[in-house]
Amino acid sequence: MLNPSKSDCITILSAASQLAGDSMLPLDHGRLGLSRNGMLTAAAFLVERACFRRYHEGGGHYAVGALSLQGRLRLDQLSNG
What we know:
three-stranded antiparallel beta sheet; Arc Repressor Mutant, subunit A; alpha+beta; 4 helices
């Protein structure tokens, strides 16, 4: 079972919340300021919970689209609760 940190999830969800339309955000741990393992764990956790309208995973690399309703709710929950 995946157990990502709250701050890693917030970082990824916040970055994806800035996307418009069909844009995709390639998740780069260096650019996001996360450890590689932390980013991969959080990305897999959020993808499994349908937090993005779309995503692409290949070879251990993720790209995510804009937040789904579930993603917006989870971002609000993590940020405020």
